[in-house]
## 1
Amino acid sequence: MAFESDKIMFEIYKETEYTGRFKVVYFTELEDHNKETEINRAMMGQHFYDGFIKGFRKEEAKEIVDGLLTRLNGGEVLEPKEVERALGSHLA
C-alpha cells in the first residue's frame, strides 16, 4: 500500500560548472556520504524543473526522466510543461 508520504523530491538542472549537461538529483534518496555534494551541484546549476514523483512505480518515472534528459542533452528544446505531461500520473 502506497501512502501520500511515499514521494521523492527531484530536480532537473543544467550543470553550469563542468559539462553543461542536464542532470537530475533525487533529493530524498540521497545518503549521508553524497548528500552535500549532490545538493551543492544542483544549487550551482541552472534550474529547469522540480517536483515530486510517487514512490509507487518510481522506477518507471525515473526511466521517463532519463529519456527527457537524453532528449535535452541531445539538443532538443523542451519546456517544463512537457516534463509534466511526460510524467503525468507519476507526479505526486
Note: Residues 58-73 form the longest helix (16 residues).
## 2
Amino acid sequence: MKRIKIRDSEYPVNDAQCSTFFNVKDGKTIILVTVGDHIDCKDHLGIIGMLVHEATHVWQNICEDAQDDSPSHEAQAYAMQNITMSLINAYSDTRGVDVSK
C-alpha cells in the first residue's frame, strides 16, 4: 500500500480481498488483490481457488470502470485466464512458493 502511495486505507485483514482505488491526480484506477499472511501456503488448490475468486472481482471492477455491461464471452474467458495467471504468478513470487505444482 505504501509503494502505490495509498495512505487512507488499512491493509485488508480478510483471507483475500480485491480493493479498488481511484487516483484523482492521474485519473487511474488501481485494483489491488491482497492475501492474508495467515493463509496456509501448502494448500495450493485452496489458494488457486481463492485467487480465481479474486480474479473475478478484478474483472468485474475492470468492466465497471470501462462501463462495459456486456463483454463477449470470449473476452471474459481470456480476461479471467490472464488475471488468474497474473495473480498466481504474483502470489508465487511474493510468497516464494510455486502454487502451480
Note: Residues 1 and 8 are 10 Å apart (CA to CA).
## 3
Amino acid sequence: MTEQAMTEQTSRQVAVITGAGSGIGAALCARAAERGMTVVAADIDPERLEAMAAPLTAAGAEVLTAAVDVTDADAVDRLAGTVYDRFGHVSLLVNNAGVESLGRLWQISPAEWRRAMAVNVDGIFHGVRSFVPRMGADPRPSRVVNTTSVGGIGTLAGMGLYGVGKHAAQQLTETLYLECAADFPQVAVSVFCPAHVRSRIFDDVPQKAYNTEAAAHWQGQLREKGMDAAEAARIFFDRIDAGRFWILTHPHVFERIAGGRARLLAERLRPDGEPDR
C-alpha cells in the first residue's frame, strides 16, 4: 500500500454498525456508505449480512462484514481488535442490534428472558466496553449511538420484556453520555429512539402459542404505519450532523409517551394513569 493510500484509509471515517443484516441496521449501512464512510457491518446472520453488503460493494463502497453475536463479550472484543488493526480508528459506533419479545411476563421462559436481555442490554454494554476506551484514546472526534425505542420511555402490557431491556438501554446511554463528557469529551453520545419503522423485528419473535396473534398485529402495524427504514436512516444522520443527543423518528409519538410518563411520575399516578388513591 502506498503512503497516499495509507493516509486516505486512516483519514476516512469508519462506521461500525451492529444488527446490520436487515431493517434499520441495513439502512444505516447504506446511508453511511452513501456518505463515503467505510462501513463495518456486524450481525449474527451471515447470509443477511452478505445480501445487505453486496449492492453496496457493487456500487463501490468499502464494506467489511463480520458475523458477530453481540451477546458474546469476547466476540465483540475481537471485532474491535479487527477494526482497529485494519483501520486504526472508529468515527461512529452504532450499537443497534436488538430483538423483540411479546407476551405477559409470566408467559416468558427464563431462556427467552435471558436471550432478549442479552441482546438488548448486554449487546450495548459489550460494544461500549470494547470500543469506547479505544475511541477515548483517539483525540479525533467520534460518536457512539445506542438504539433504544419509544418502548424505553413508556410501558406497554404484553411487551414487558422488550420494555425492560429498552429502559435499561436508555439509562445506559444517558450514563455513558455523562461519563464520556467527563473522561472523553471528544466522544459524543446519542440515543436513537425509533417508533414505528418497517423492519423484520416482529418476524423474528420466537413463535409461541401465546404471542402469535400479537406478532401478526404488530407486523401489520409496521406494514401499514411504519416509516421506511431508509427515511429513519436519513433522520439518524441529519441529527448526528446537528450534534443532537436525541434522535427521534417520530417526535410526536415520543412527546406523547414522554409526556404521559412525566405526568405519571410527577403526579405519582398508577401505571394505568389513574390517581393513586
Note: Residues 3-251 form a domain with the Rossmann fold fold (CATH 3.40.50.720).
